[in-house]
Specification:
single chain; 103 residues; mainly alpha; flat
Length: 103
C-alpha cells in the first residue's frame, strides 16, 4: 500500500520548471529595454553603464527563483498584501454561532 505522490506537481505547469509566461515576458521586456538603451546611448562612464544595464538586472532579480516561494516578485506581492490588508482577524470557526458574549 505505497502511494506515489510527486513532491511538486506545480513545477510541471511551468516553463522549464521555473517560469510562468508572465515571468518570461517581464524578463524579456527588461532585456529589450536594456538592448535598446545599449544601442542608442553612449557608454561614457560607469554610472551611465549601470543605469543602462539596470532594467535587465532588476527584472532578472524579480524572476529569480526562491525556495518556498515562486520568485522574488511573488515575495514582494505577498509582503505588500500583508502590510496593506486588515491585520485583525475575527474568529469564524465551527463554533462561532454557539459562543455567547460574556458580561
Amino acid at each position: 500500500m505505497n502511494y506515489l505522490i510527486p513532491a511538486n506537481t506545480k513545477k510541471g505547469q511551468l516553463i522549464l520548471g521555473l517560469f510562468r509566461p508572465f515571468d518570461l515576458g517581464l524578463f524579456a521586456g527588461g532585456v529589450l529595454v536594456t538592448v535598446i538603451l545599449l544601442a542608442f546611448l553612449p557608454l561614457n562612464n560607469t554610472a551611465v553603464t549601470i543605469l543602462i544595464l539596470s532594467p535587465a538586472f532588476i527584472t532578472g532579480f524579480l524572476v529569480m527563483p526562491v525556495p518556498y516561494y515562486h520568485n522574488m516578485l511573488n515575495i514582494i506581492v505577498e509582503m505588500y498584501e500583508f502590510f496593506t490588508n486588515r491585520q485583525t482577524y475575527r474568529w469564524k470557526g465551527w463554533c462561532y454561532k454557539s459562543v455567547q458574549k460574556r458580561k
